[in-house]
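WARN  no MSA supplied for this record, continuing single-sequence
INFO  ligand: FE3-S4 cluster
INFO  echoing inputs
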Amino acid sequence: MPFVITSACIDVKDGACLGGGCPADCIYEGNRKMYINPDECTECGACAVACPVGAAMIDEMVPDEEQDFIKSEELFFSEVLPGRDEPLGEPGGAAEVGKINADSEFVAAYKK
Ligand code: F3S
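INFO  complex generated
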């Protein structure tokens, strides 16, 4: 049951969940939002505490209208994103990867 970043992050990307926020360094930066790697998340909840707009939450708390973000978070790491040759998978740390100039298809098309 990993944490998930939902629509409130889109085009906001406050960033408080990074750095001191996430001790697992499993929050990766896309173009429009951050994405939590579901296989690297240790479910500590630091991102949810840090986020000022309530975008980060454990998957079982994601409201019905935001459920697509759970799958979107998985696909960001398991599908080949635009401009890349292979899926991100489990890179083992967001700091080293840096900003990923892509979003999941769902987020790229999301109207806010
Ligand atoms: Fe987004 Fe909140 Fe982090 S807005 S970048 S999930 S602090």
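The pocket of FE3-S4 cluster is lined by residues 5, 9, 12-17, 34, 50-51, 53, 55-56 (CB under 6 Å).
INFO  checksum written, moving to next record
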